[in-house]
Amino acid sequence: MSSPQYTSSPPASNPLEGRRRSKFTFKHLNQLSTYSTTTPLRTIAHVDLDAFYAQCEMVRLGVARDQPLAVQQWGALIAINYPSRKFGLTRHITAAEAKKLCPNIVCQHVATWREGDDTWAYHDDAFKNMGTHKVSLDPYRRESKKILATIKESLPPPPLQRVEKAGIDEVFIDMSAQIHSILLERYPELARLPPYDDLTENLPWPSQSTINWEADALVDLEAEELESDDPDWDDICLSIGAEIIRHVRKGVWDALHYTCSGGVARNKMLAKLGSGFNKPNKQTVIRTRAIQKFLNDFKFTKIRNLGGKLGDEIVAAFGTDLVKELCDVPVEQLQKLGDDTGVWLYNTLRGIDSSEVNSRTQVKSMLSAKSFRPSINTFEQGVRWLRIFAADIFSRCVEEGVLENKRKPKTITLHHRQGGTTKSKQALIPQGGLISEELIFDLAKSLLAQIVVDGRAWPCSNLSLSAGGFEDTITGNMGIKGFLVTGGQRPTKEVVDSSEASDSEEEPPTAKRQKIDVDDGIRRFFAHPSEAATSTHNENQATQARFPTETDVLDGIYICKKCSKPILQSDAGEHEDWHFAKNLENELRQEPRPAPVHQVESHAKEKVKEKTKTKRTAGQGHQSTEKVEKGQQRLRFGNG
Ligand code: TTP
Ligand code: CA
Ligand code: CA
């Protein structure tokens, strides 16, 4: 017997040889388990409550589901439920106009803090007393928390769960890891190793080739394009994602009686467009092959981050607001908006977005604010509002668990607007003892006193107090993060909260807030947290004081080459994005840069509105802008 002959060809044949293969690889599949942003099988959802404040009031008041109801803030309506939308009511109309169009409507005023009271309540006469009442959004924040908890309960625990709170009534969910584990359970062929352990091998074709999309609104190819093919793994991932979101939405309804809408797609930007596509109480799946078709019908100003000045600039530069038309513009021409902006826009128009779902869902800061019309003119008047702010912030701190020493803020900041100028002063909260309402009030008073001593404090048109830098104390998680100014959170989160869930009153509430969202979009998007710190000398000093010393620099931290600041490794992406966004901003504005760090006052216009929550990946360049789904296989669902 001769010994076996070894040749250069492999001893066993590829078990998948000759069989139909997926266009996706084992690597793409594996990457799902690590939430990679580059796998084409990535599956993201956006869930948004329908007419949120209005639903909160419907549930609280126990009104029938078909009862028209709106939530009123002073004279204006800030949330309109779906039964009243049938009467043509929109967010911009007044309560009086609404009653003309829909006499049966219930207009419920938001809860308020009345001057001198130490708790908020629903006051029947609130709308007449704007001067002495201040809005409380606590009822909605509480419901928001319950909803978030319910959503998390309906998902498997981390690491298979990744949820980002994206606003008071919305979340992003990265379902990739959960879907990965479901795929391995349901499709044994995927659990086998790839031939020759080669991860670049294509996956086998799915063994079950029909998908029941159930009641989902599916953004699909045109009927004539859906010829003779079966779904590939991307479709299966989306359909499992749709199942998960159906379950999540049912959980919210069963537990709390709120309806919400969902979008399921390959990334955040598309998922968000999807959740708004078919409201209320429906979910929309955007098939990867249908992305371009889906986007073509949109005005690009409806896309996240293109609603503001950047969108206007693009319309002015290219004479269209249609995705379809802008897609015909070569990237080189888009780059007249700036190199990076051009590439980013080119990708966005094609539905390419690799921003991560960020699993932080805890409050990092909170803000209580009041605009004064007419302005206030004395220290005593200011102090009366600080009393309310302190009570408001303290009660929210209690909900965060400060009394059980679970979580604790590090700073109290007072913002003060006089004329066009906003001044901010910050105090560090003494660590160690328990926080009390009195302590917050005393710190706030001393900050106001400092502003008065600095001069030019009156007339004051807006005051706000924020508590920031919340840390988990129980988990011993007080570590290095507390010392760092990262590209992410600290001063900004409070501003995120202010646009989403603070009790700040911009009058008229809706129009103005809308205006901020739209007109200030680009500033909001590009402003960096550290610019918030530039707004005052004090605040900056406080920030500086938290910088790590040599000995504080532990593993997991690096010094950014661009700005020489210590950055947590885990925040690296976010921080890089900030530099990227900042460069974009500079390219776009060609205006003088924001006030230098040492400047004591900043113009109100320069105030940071919201942190950039979107990541733009500079590497997502030209070469990676694969023509989305053009010329790809045509599929048919159902009986295919
Ligand atoms: P949205 O999610 O924008 O709107 P909505 O939930 O009322 O309606 P939809 O079904 O279209 O999602 O905002 C969530 C809540 O935030 C909203 O119920 C009230 C509040 N809000 C304001 O107070 N002012 C505003 O300008 C906006 C846009 C929202
Ligand atoms: Ca909503
Ligand atoms: Ca929303």
UniProtKB/TrEMBL annotation:
GO CC field: nucleus; replication fork; site of double-strand break
InterPro entries (UniProt xref): DNA/RNA_pol_sf, DNA_pol_Y-fam_lit_finger_sf, DNA_pol_Y-fam_little_finger, DNA_polymerase_eta, Rev_trsase/Diguanyl_cyclase, UBZ3, UmuC
Domain UBZ3-type per the UniProt entry, residue ranges: 553-587
Region (Disordered): 491-519, 588-640
Composition-biased stretches (Basic and acidic residues): 600-611
Location within or outside the cell: Nucleus
Major location category of this protein: nucleus
GO biological process, one term: DNA repair
Ranges for domain UmuC: 44-307
Record has DNA damage as a keyword: yes
SUPFAM superfamilies from the UniProt entry: DNA/RNA polymerases, Lesion bypass DNA polymerase (Y-family), little finger domain
Domain of life according to the entry: Eukaryota
Keywords, comma-separated and alphabetical: DNA damage, DNA repair, Metal-binding, Nucleus, Transferase, Zinc, Zinc-finger
GO molecular-function terms, A-Z: damaged DNA binding; DNA-directed DNA polymerase activity; zinc ion binding
Name of the protein in question: DNA polymerase eta
Organism: Microthyrium microscopicum
